Amino acid sequence: MARITNSIRRLRFDHGEMTQEELARRAGCTRQTVIALEAGKYTPSLALAFRIARSFDCQVEDVFTFSVNSGKE
Amino acid sequence: MNAEQKRAWLGVATMGACVLGYFVLLPLFGPVVATAAFAFYGINGFAGVIGRHEEVDERDRSIARRATLAGAVASYLAFVIGCMGTWFVVFAFQHKEQVWVHALGTITILGAVVFFFIRSVVILLLYGRHVEASDG
After folding, report:
1. Is B105 exposed, middle or buried (0-12, 13-18, 19+ CB in 10 A)?
2. pTM for this structure?
3. Is the ipTM of this complex over 0.90?
4. How far apart are CA A38 and CA A24, in angstroms?
5. Which of A14, A15, A21, B104 matches a 20 to 30 Å C-alpha distance to B21?
6. How distant is the Cα of A55 from the closest Cα of chain B, in angstroms?
């Protein structure tokens, strides 16, 4: 089963303790969506993933990690 | 809580008021008059004025789309089961092969109420669960 995790919370603090509101404004989404992303309750579209990465001045791979579980665990 | 959740809570609350009203009126006036309690569901029409100018994003749209689909499926099921169920009751217990045509209006309203209620419930559930983007 495929799983996408993210390091948005860490990146926010690495960028001068950027608030969720500020990230939401930069990425063009709502604060509630940022909260859901950090809690792992939302898998964003490719467009939003790129906008979030751009907000942190980094690549998508630096923010999101794609992993595939074999399902035998 | 965003506007979509507030609208969903209004939908669930009005349905609660309808069911409560129905069971209050049932012993007093009987089953036909008691259905008038479902007029409370009209209050749900005010959902349109809640958060009209509030910003929505792809997650809100994704959840709304899934909830609308779930509501449509449930509504269709309620309508078909309502039609066939009515016919079954009339045929099995009254031994008639034709259904009273006025039942169709009630069954149609049942389908509409089921659509809005299930949509509201699914919205409230999905805001607490993992969702994947369905657009973009």
Report:
1. exposed
2. 0.82
3. no
4. 12
5. B104
6. 17
